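Aim 2 progress update. The chain analyzed this quarter is reproduced below.
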Amino acid sequence: MTRDKFLRGAMILTMAGLMVKIIGSVNRILLSRLLGGEGIGLYQMAYPVYLLMLSVSSAGIPIAISIIVAEKVAKGDFASAGR
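Predicted structure tokens:
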């Protein structure tokens, strides 16, 4: 990979990260105005549990996909591996 492609990819990822942060900030402001103080308190109590469950449920998916792809490549089935 050339240096130019690397810098371009890094810039795209940086801009995408900034956009996600801005959208998240707007969402947080709107949510606090909509729910009020008590609603935000309840939201903040439930959010860590939600993040934990999301992390546990999605942690194995990339590993499982990589195992399946490795098996297909080892068997020589490159079409299924790409799919």
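The chain has one domain: 3-82. Helices lie at 3-75, 78-82. These observations will guide the mutagenesis experiments scheduled for the next reporting period.
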